[in-house]
Amino acid sequence: MSKTENHVYRKGLGLRKEIAPQIQRDYYSGVVSYLKAHDNELAARGVTLILAREFGFCYGVERAVDYAYQTRKKFPDRRIFLVGDMIHNPFVNRQLQKIGIEILPVPDSENENYKFIRPEDVVVLPAFGVPVRTLDRLKQQQCILVDTTCGSVISVWKRVEQYARDRFTVLIHGKYGHEETRATVSHALKYPGGKYLVVLNKEEASLVCDWIRGRGDRDEFFRQFEKTVPPDFEPDRDLEKIGLANQTTMLRNESVEIAEMIRRAMIERYGEENLSEHFRNFDTVCSATQDRQDAVIELVTKKKVDLMIVVGGFQSSNTGHLAEIAAAFVPTFHIESADMLIDRHTIHHRDPATGQIKTTQNWLPEPPLRIGLTAGASTPNSILGEVIERLSELVGIDLKEMFPEGKPAR
Prior knowledge:
Elements: E1 8-9, H1 16-27, H2 30-37, E2 41-44, E3 47-51, H3 59-74, E4 80-83, H4 90-98, E5 101-104, E6 122-125, H5 132-140, E7 144-147, H6 151-165, E8 169-173, H7 179-188, E9 196-199, H8 202-212, H9 218-225, H10 235-238, E10 242-246, H11 252-270, H12 275-278, E11 279-281, H13 287-302, E12 307-311, H14 317-327, E13 332-335, E14 346-350, E15 357-361, E16 369-375, H15 381-395, H16 399-402
Parallel strand pairs: 1-7, 3-16, 4-5, 4-6, 6-7, 8-9, 8-10, 10-11, 12-13, 12-16
Antiparallel strand pairs: 2-3, 14-15
Helix pairs in contact: 1-3, 6-7, 8-11, 13-14
């Protein structure tokens, strides 16, 4: 084992119990805990607040945040850097800065320069992971590394590397600019001849299918995918063999539909008997993402809510998809924090359809009213709890009256 490898922490730093009180102070909510213990519902004055069955921090996010706090505890006098945001939640990233972790710019493989990092410094890798080149450059500095990359993301990387080894082009359903997808792409290039293509949605996937079937337009193809394929990509050659993967936070149903689209196109081109030579697929949407998506569908279809509030960072892919799912059924408002609930008439939110940040008037109907709530996998209970408290205030629920022992502590 090399000297550099001796300085990589991948399984925590042995200080989980020591940092537990600080984690609780920053991220716990007594109100959320109370609802979870009471069938996820709170009802009074003609208003029912209903939490989704699954919401908030997933295991990977919880682990990453935990490791960051352990790092600060273990190295109290060292400079500690985080490569990009830990997760897409502004509150969490601010908390990490408050404990003395400096957030570096999102990795840019063309302009990365880590020469200012010294061997005694500590660098934390985020839950999204980092591109291969970024990791190699950090290792060259012989600094201490704390790797919090989510296990689900690493599973995708392994699948992608297998595709690349077998000379299959990696087709990724994801957002090309997202940190996770950029890291995943780099693993497709670890092997000679490795190729990738990133598609955002079914519309983009249909252009790939057209080319597979021999009906593609070269100019249209490269207008669409110029930035999401490597410079030497040649569709006639590189779309003969495709292996599918997903950014772990995408809509699973759309990923399944894209896989079926590609599969059918390959069958039409090469015949079903030859499919395995040209097409591979493995569902890489993480289980936590799927659980939260399923819970939203359950909430809007079986609980008969009148509107949904989705809490999480505006840059969070998994949170945005929760809002998209809910918006197909009921009015839905994606907010980052309680202060976006301005009053009973005004809300500041992200539109699930357009992605635009907007202000909406007359958003909150009069009782009787059933309001569904959920939070993205990068949203701490403390933020969700503040939203519930503010919403209770707006609809006239006095939490002090609801709890005989007084409102639960944060």
